[in-house]
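Quick entry, no commentary yet.
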Amino acid sequence: MDTGTGTDGNGNADAVAEEPPAGTEPTGIPSRRRRLRPARIALAVMLAVLLPLLAAEAALRVNYTGHPAEGTRTRSRDAIWLGHAWVDGRKRDADVAALARRLRGTGIRDLYVHAGPLEHDGTLPGSAYRNAPWLLRSVHRALPGVRVQAWLGDKLASEGPDGLRLERAGTRAAVVRSTREVLSKGFDGAHFDLEPLHSGDRDYLSLLGDLRRVTRAHDALLSVAAHQIDPLPAFHSFWGATTGHPKWWSQAYFGEVARRVDQIAVMSYDTMQPLESLYGGYVAQQTGLALEVTPRSTDLLMGLPFYHENRFGHWAHAETVPAAVRGVRLGLSRTDADRARFGVALYVDFAATEDDWRAYEEDWVR
């Protein structure tokens, strides 16, 4: 009989160790349960993160299936981003003539010509776009009906100490003054690309309100380059908490921006997608999400990757023009196939290849 004293009934040492009280472990003996508990927690956390992502990737692959609807091609409201060489003296008449030959017969209506960047205080020296008058005259002569917008932007101090600070009223006022000065040179609009711009930024919305009053006074367009929309609900919050860079906007915030501008161009590249089919499905998803909240009075443009870098976030073998165009057409087909104020925006002229142009023309224009 075990008396619980470590001896048998005759007072001799018992060969069986005393059973520990419930909920305790013998001193000095490692607990398998304790060892397993952190591993189980880590596995649960990993699955909680990975399973939704894997499900989302599978959904993107499904998004890439099917056939685009007839008529989901250019509405002649496309655009292209052009580099700074067009306004700083490096380009000549022969370059404008070559650009005109390239663009005739396509759907491109707007040129976003890099005229900045803005200084961190919101100012912009006129020397930055000194050749703008020549460019405007040359383009309007060679491509009647094509609009030339001043592409302005800067790095925001939203994730570091350096950059433009939208929360400062004086800085926003300087951006407005810079825009007024640019438009006085004859640009047909002002196109803004401010990054990284976090979802929900009210100072940005305030700036857009001030800018729109200026552009309307000049009978000019206000357009913006927009971040991508959450591929999963509140994904920007999760990504911001884990990486410090909330890359996406909420769909609601995207809609708020779209209601304050004449054009909104989604930067639908740098998506971290590793396969062409996943990238195309992602673009289809982004197109649908953007269409749902963009008013019909605003031009919605989806970006096409006319560049070929390989780095974290962008794989050239996956982010191709054919995949992007197919994704755009699928998203348009499923959400609002007859949307008139819709197009694509090509990024960027100086990195484009003949294959990029061919894919745009054959898959979207014709």
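second:
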Amino acid sequence: MAAHGVRADRFGGRGPARQGSARQGLARLLSARLVAGATCAVLAAAGALPALGSAYTALSLRLEERFHTQVPGPPARIALGPQGRDIRFAGEIGAGTAARLGALLAAHPEVTRIHLTSEGGLVEEATAIGDLIAARGLATYVPDYCVSACTLAFVRGTGRALVTNGRLGFHAPYDPGLFGQVVQADASAERAAYVAAGVDPAFVAEALAVASDSLWIPEPARLIQARVATELVDTDRFPDSTLDDDPSSAGARAAILRALPLLGALARRGDVLDALAAAYLDGYRAGLPEGAALDRLRAGAERAIARILRDADDASWVATGRVLLRAMRGADPQACLTIGGEGNLLAAQDVLADDAAATVLARAAGQGARAGMAAPAPSARLARDCAGLIAAYADALARPGAGPVLRGLANRRVPPTREATALPR
């Protein structure tokens, strides 16, 4: 049975990811390829490969068929999304996957779209999934990556949407030999399937000319031009799919840490991370678009961090003030006011290229509630522009006992400056 993508031998790769599972899959791939490479190296050192040639290839295929050294990965997750209009598919396309999808579709005739996040798998199964998609007139959507055999299913959608910065990957099909050897297979069936789905034949020829142990990820404009995808969409278009492969509390926590790495500084505040992860999981289950879910996560994280900083001691505020001041100096005017006027470490982290924000946040988070907190000192005049706010921070940091003053500066939202007007009031 030909494979067209990543099986347990896991050739290929997942796109740069908004999802951690992509990195995990790539790690498994590299590990498995090292095993295969070591095996071939032993044979090569013994001078066996050149002598065996095609005979070795045929033997490798027969031995794999006999001993099944390619251990299948975990079954793909296939689940009905919120409101019952979407199916979320995540994982390897293995034996029996199409039958599982068919059963879910039969039970839910209201489904109109399928989200595909997959490293590929078996050609026959992917083709069968494509047949189900075409028969039901489903739209397809790739919220992250869909490579190898997965693309055979994707192109069967009535509408084929790819998220901005998403990845579609192509290469020739292969048969797995013993210990992961990649033996390129005849691609005529795949060529016919792509062309029948309306994909430009020149693109198909180029895609299937890519060696089986390589991967081509075309630019989005090329995918649209070749009629592989019909549209590029932003993350606010469809329900969030970032937890499709692991919709658990642990998966949600991992997702928020990937989305906002600064939250890693709250490792000792599991209560805060659990609350943020639970809210993110609730939004996923409710079908929030990814953009809206991330906006809500960021707002919640900003509130949580502000509460932690509010309880920090004066020494922590001096350290935080230095970080905020450095970020303000490198930010645009609006971000500068957010960083300094709100003490917003998330906005500061967006500007800084180091872990200074994480260091001061971890220090504050480790102090517990109301650890040595002093009342904010009133500022003589609230600066309404970035330059004035920078000057106020610099002046405070130049004086002893700056903690209360900095706390006061960072907890006063800077109102917009009113412009003079001749309009009637």
